Amino acid sequence: MSLARLVLKKNEEKRIKGGHLWIFSNEVDTQKSPLKSFQTGQQVLIESASGQKLGTGYINPQTLLCARIVSRDPKLQLDRSLLVHKLNIAQSLRERCFDKPFYRLCYGESDGLPGLIVDRYNEHLVVQITTAGMEQHKEAIVDALCKVVKPTSILLRNDSSARKQEGLDSYVEQAFGETPEQIVIEENQTQFAIHPHSGQKTGWFYDHRISRKQIAQYAKGKKVLDVFSYIGAFGLQMATAGAEEVWCLDASSKALDELQYNAELNGVADRLTTVEGDAFTALAALKEQGERFDVIVVDPPAFIKKKKDHKAGLQGYRKINELAMRLLSKDGILLSASCSMHLKAEELQDILRTSSRHLDKQLQIIEQNHQGPDHPIHPAIPETRYIKGFISRVLSAS
């Protein structure tokens, strides 16, 4: 099947040749390839102004980010065969990095499959499709995953807010087998019961796996606090690493109930204290109560979801980190992280510096945090690098 041509304006191919996979509508030569001539999700052959074939992909003419490349080979199209090939390559990386089948199997652009996220929970897969072009191949995706992984079940969690920008409906659908309401997974020798049908995203966040292992080494025999704890990923891994006392703070009573269940699952419930409430208010209250902690983890939801949120988001990160520093014991350890794509690591570092100086503290950064190898970074697409964090030692000024 021959594909319709999407022709770029003169010199607009430079970024694509440099490795990028995205094409914006203002880069398209609409005289040679009118956007209104394409259907949403249609596959296209992408060409430079001089006629050089740059690759194949799919298009959504209704969006600013209008096309994404899926292959540099102009003879290849997005189909079951290409999906099987790319998913095999993706799985081979994960199998090299992890000895158990709990990982993000496919991370969109970074694995050459824009708009496709697949999380693996042993024999169960949870899939998120975020683009119209990938939605067109839903059945082929399921078939390819069955061939590559041979799972017991595949659940489509197509309820991401990103789908709205693509003009897609929101839904959750059982695509293959029967996914249980609850699945027990393992991360860093700690077990967690997750809920793939109703939990946040696909039910779990694998991206901070390495950070959780890093901070756990500071927890043995210590009193620790996990702020924005959700179902206990940081807090319970510090508990299984030997923390003497673990406090977990979250605004969701449902999340804290699940956290309590997970604490019992790991035999550490006797060391757990949960606090329900707004993080800013609760941290201030803990200070008033005279509580102190040896290790604190601050991993909030994205305070900067869009560029226009940048100024207010910076203030939010500074305030939450200052509140945390006020609760640290002498010679305390703080892990401060952000999943805001629009916050640079240098900005977070500067927030920690200014916050510590405002409190007349001395800050030593001793480790940096990054997303795990199942979230590989595409070197031409900075948006694929979103996790950043620092483990710091906070001392009295001297």
Description:
The chain has about 400 residues and is α/β, with parallel strands linked by helices. Helix content is about 30%, strand content about 30%. It has eleven helices and 19 strands. The strands form four sheets. It has a seven-stranded mixed β-sheet with strand order 15-14-13-16-17-19-18, sandwiched between helices. A five-stranded mixed β-sheet has the order 1-3-4-5-2. Strands 6-7-8-9-10 form a five-stranded mixed β-sheet. The protein is globular.
Set out the fold topology.
Blueprint: E1 4-7, H1 14-17, E2 22-24, E3 43-47, E4 53-59, E5 65-71, H2 80-97, E6 102-107, E7 116-121, E8 124-129, H3 132-135, H4 138-149, E9 153-158, H5 162-165, E10 171-176, E11 183-187, E12 190-194, H6 209-216, E13 223-227, H7 233-240, E14 245-250, H8 253-265, E15 272-276, H9 279-288, E16 293-298, H10 310-326, E17 328-338, H11 345-358, E18 361-369, E19 388-396
Helix pairs in contact: 2-4, 6-7, 9-10, 10-11
